[in-house]
Amino acid sequence: MSNPAGRVSNNPGENKHPLPDCCGGLGNVDYSKMDLKLFEEVLKHIDFHDPSFHVAVIAIIFNPLFWNVVATWEHRTRKLSKIFGSPYLACYFLGFVIILLNVYRSHSMAIVMKTQARWEVLNRIEVFILGVLLIATGSLLVVSSFLALGFTGTFLGNYFGIVMDEKVTGFPFNLAENPMYWGSTANYLGLALIGASPVGLVLTAIVALVYKIAIHFEGGFIEQIYQQRTRKHE
User: Fold this and answer.
1) Which of 66, 63, 99, 90 is nearest to 161 (CA)?
2) Quick one: pLDDT at residue 126?
3) Arithmetic mean of pLDDT, 87-110
4) Following CA atoms 170, 171, 173, 179 in sequence, which dihedral angle do they give, to the nearest 10 degrees?
5) Residue 211 and residue 141: Cα distance in Å, rounded?
6) Among 37, 149, 177, 214, which is disulfide-ready with 64 (CB 3.0 to 4.6 Å)?
7) 154 burial class (0-12, 13-18, 19+ CB within 10 angstroms)?
8) Which among 229, 75, 211 is positioned nearest to 166, based on CA atoms?
9) Helices 37-44 and 198-232, axial angle in degrees (round to 10)
10) For 31, how many CA atoms within 13 A lie in the half-sphere containing its CB?
11) pTM tops 0.85
12) What percent of the chain has pLDDT over 70?
């Protein structure tokens, strides 16, 4: 989904200072000394051979891959706009398809979290409350992002030539980049904690990873769009 507020630095000077060891330096971490018992304990409660788990993973990976491929194809060919006779109708169509795919993804993840084993370590009131807070925060980010961007701004309108006058910088984009994606991730994490579901934690991690990759590709495109728009108005 589109995120006009994303910022990609094009100034090499911003990135020439190395991170201190406390902040970065992942290459200096001695992974052999890390305690993997917690990670191993999580994996013990997951049935990776469960077909429902496979379906959920496929749905998680497929969704952003699908909408990025289709949107890029539309940007290059304008085929959808020609089929529907309007870039707005084409964008609405893709948006509703994305919504249906995301509903199915959520459903497939809920099935796995419901049918696979719970982890008693997570079955605590503190964890439950944290899950509720995450869902509340995630829902706020998702809804406020949608209201700020509108339907076409949320569902890749930039690829259809429907470009907003300027980037959205107000709430929630003044708090976090890509709030729609991270709000959705927070919702899944909250559901996993409420359900004391270790498989839910793993699926949420996959969601976050896939979104991170999607942001990499979408962010570069959106920066290019607004840079071109700025040059035209100079």
Assistant:
1) 90
2) 97
3) 97
4) -160
5) 15
6) 214
7) buried
8) 229
9) 110
10) 3
11) no
12) 78
Angle in degrees, 0-180, between the axes of helices 198-232 and 87-115, rounded to the nearest 10: 160
Contact 174, 145 (CB under 8 A): no
* 3-state SS class at 78: coil
Q: Are 214 and 68 in contact (CB under 8 A)?
A: yes
Residue 69: pLDDT over 90 = yes
3-class SS shares of the chain: helix, strand, coil, % to 5 = 70, 0, 30
pLDDT in tens, 112-139: 999 999 999 999 999 999 999 999 999 9
For the record, the structure tokens of 229 come out as 């728009």
The overall average pLDDT reported for the chain is 84
Residue that is written with structure tokens 């579901």 in the block: 197
What is the radius of gyration, based on Cα positions, of the chain? 20
Domain limits, the chain: 49-232
Q: What is the pLDDT of residue 12?
A: 37
Calculate ∠ Cα 79-85-89, nearest 5°. Answer: 90
Answer whether 94's CB lies under 8 Å from 70's CB: yes
Q: What is the pLDDT of residue 99?
A: 97
At a CB cut-off of 8 Å and minimum separation 6, what does 67 contact?
A: 1, 94, 98, 101, 155, 156
Tell me the C-alpha distance between 159 and 36, whole Å.
Answer: 43
| φ, ψ for residue 161, nearest 5 deg | 85, 10
List residues forming the annotated binding site for S-adenosyl-L-methionine.
Answer: 136-138, 218-219
CB neighbours of residue 209 within 10 Å:
13
